[in-house]
């Protein structure tokens, strides 16, 4: 037993010498002594990690420890160990807020985007190359007459949903628009997701329809981001969104799986109703029943509106967007009615 213990001791000494040679004398001493070192930012190949020296030895790799040892921690590295915590971060609001910089081992650098005039772009929810000027010349009166049984079913389903909506919101069109956009952004996301999965299963292209439907969902979401600036939902309206979104998402998901032609036709009729709602919104603005306030900054940048634009201008471009979504979904339904697949027709990407 004595000889065995001596052999174990010699192995322990050998391993200690190996540790000392592998990393550095200073690091090995710190590890073996297990001294508590106050946590501070230490640079590993340009990355910043908040740990103590003991944790480095347990979690770091041999290569990382070699470069992170106290012996190789030069004066230049010590100058870089202070991290700037207060940097202006642009958000989806009207002004940039001071926030603590996020420190991460992975260190993905934030992109700095500027406008054409050189000023800083203040929106993270969309970029300058995603903005556009709305096509106000689109025909707003087009209507798809329901002929088949599925068409009539889709038409009357939408009509039946309009009655409780009118009853709940009455003439509060600003709040009505904001709440309905929380639902309008669902179909494009569901359709794009299902086409995405189908493309993966079948090892085939989608003809661009995945991107087209996701663009529609994002456009509808930007409508919501805009009307959030002009309307203030009550607590029960926020609770209603959770319920309606949960029911509608799952119902539309199942409906799209069963019959895409029905799903797209129903969205086409929903967009027709949206056009009607925004037309009534404009009438109330013209009558003076709703104050024509200045357009939110996010709307001016997203639709490239003139700086002196008003809420009426915003409602007009949103209504034009809904008319384009109407055309896209009726077109998609027609493709399915002809026994074809969406991928066989070029998708209207960028059609707003």
TrEMBL record:
Major enzyme class: oxidoreductase
Compartments where located: Mitochondrion inner membrane
Cofactor(s) in the UniProt record: Fe cation
GO biological process assignments: alternative respiration
Membrane topology of this protein: Multi-pass membrane protein
Pfam families hit by this protein: AOX (PF01786)
Enzyme Commission number(s): 1.10.3.11
Cofactor binding summary note: Binds 2 iron ions per subunit.
UniProt catalytic activity: 2 a ubiquinol + O2 = 2 a ubiquinone + 2 H2O
UniProt xrefs under InterPro entries: AOX, AOX_sf
Gene3D superfamilies: Alternative oxidase (1.20.1260.140)
Domain of life: Eukaryota
Annotated keywords: Electron transport, Iron, Membrane, Metal-binding, Mitochondrion, Mitochondrion inner membrane, Oxidoreductase, Respiratory chain, Transit peptide, Transmembrane, Transmembrane helix, Transport
Quaternary structure annotation from Swiss-Prot or TrEMBL: Homodimer; disulfide-linked.
PANTHER family the UniProt entry points to: ALTERNATIVE OXIDASE (PTHR31803:SF3)
Name recorded for this polypeptide: Ubiquinol oxidase
